[in-house]
Amino acid sequence: MSDCVFCKIVKGEIPSTRVYEDEEILAFRDVNPQAPTHILVVPKEHMANVLACAERKDDLIGKLFKAAAAIAREQDVAETGFRLVTNCGEHGAQSVHHLHIHLLGGRQLTERMV
Ligand code: AMP
Q1: Residue 67 Cα, ligand 1 centroid: separation in angstroms?
Q2: Which residues pair with 55 in a beta bridge?
Q3: Which domains does the chain have, with CATH numbers?
């Protein structure tokens, strides 16, 4: 999608700090980190949110979680713990409409979700 910021990051048109990449998935550091480790795991193909991803016949949704788990290990937060979040739509406060999973860790997160 031509005006999508994450599509531009995937294409290298906007700079990012990449931490993981494979054929279908890219992960990079959030520009406005909410925790010492704050990484966004995104499919390279544009899709708006988890609803769109869940409609696919392939296992991309599983691959995104597997990539997030591998990144958590690689970034040394697997032992101490971390949080995976995907915001969806207006009430979910999704601001970038290209599916992404936030990987947050590196400090004690609050018990509150909202
Ligand atoms: P959400 O509110 O769940 O849609 O999250 C979007 C996230 O994308 C926010 O945490 C932003 O800080 C992050 N973000 C927006 N633009 C960029 C960018 N150019 N590079 C890295 N992260 C970004």
Answers
A1: 18
A2: none
A3: 5-80 (3.30.428.10)
